[in-house]
């Protein structure tokens, strides 16, 4: 379900995506409005589910998480019980930053952040001990070229 947002909403959302720690006064000044209407719109966007939550983005390498792996998972299991066990296993692992079920030859892709290859192997061993997986391919990211949490906010059409 999409929510109707106007240009002012888009500008507010862009500011929040850039730095959610900004004060309401700063955001209002940057978007050309006053504090109260900006606060009301942010509240409306939260209630509508457009704004899920506010958080901080940490620098993975500064925390010693220097290796990023993309893990391609193929399974021969497609029963609901297996899917639930896989979902539980993936959600329980803090190393998994993203998990997607795919269309095509690969069933799932995981984005995994760990300190090094040895830590990835420990993650892999734990995962396959919890759920039966037909085939796993791990791809090590050599360089992060772009990473953002900001969604495009241009009007569609």
From TrEMBL:
Entry-linked Pfam families: AsnC_trans_reg (PF01037), HTH_24 (PF13412)
GO molecular function: sequence-specific DNA binding
Ranges for domain HTH asnC-type: 5-66
One GO CC annotation: cytosol
Any one GO biological process: regulation of DNA-templated transcription
Protein keywords: DNA-binding, Transcription, Transcription regulation
InterPro entries membership: ArsR-like_HTH (IPR011991), AsnC-type_HTH_dom (IPR000485), Dimeric_a/b-barrel (IPR011008), Tscrpt_reg_AsnC-like (IPR019888), Tscrpt_reg_AsnC/Lrp_C (IPR019887), Tscrpt_reg_HTH_AsnC-type_CS (IPR019885), WH-like_DNA-bd_sf (IPR036388), WH_DNA-bd_sf (IPR036390)
Protein name: Lrp/AsnC family transcriptional regulator
Organism: Rhabdonatronobacter sediminivivens
